[in-house]
Write a structure and sequence with these properties.
Belongs to the universal stress protein A family. The protein is of the alpha/beta class and 139 residues long. It contains six helices and five strands. 48% of the residues lie in helices and 20% in strands. It has a five-stranded parallel beta sheet, with helices on both faces.
Length: 139
Amino acid sequence: MVSRVLVPVDGSEMSEHALEYALEVFPDADITVLHVVGGPSPMWGEAAGLALADDIEEKANELAASVFERAEVIAAENDQEISTTVQLGHPARVIVNRAEDYDTVVIGAHGGSLADRLIVGNVAETVFRRSPIPVIVVR
């Protein structure tokens, strides 16, 4: 039985589909929505913004706020509750490192822009290959 599910989100439509899937397939599970900030991007904008912030944790929470707001709406539409967490680092590494605390990871097949995928790499593929627990990739 799956009782703890990790759903990484990046604000993309695909990650929202992953959250919807997790809520539908695992209605009795504790669902944690994870947003990772500070990883590489084409212009290093987010990482640079964090580096220049006086309070890195506060800035990370600020960057994650709109993503979490949308996730909360999706959960409410499904009459369910979620927990949210934000972490700093490279998305694939953070997700794989957090995975061992859960029964499964539900992740969107891809997210972000084409430029993000080319430079950062395919996060879903890396998580799928390296995760210590089962991974469901949602398209």
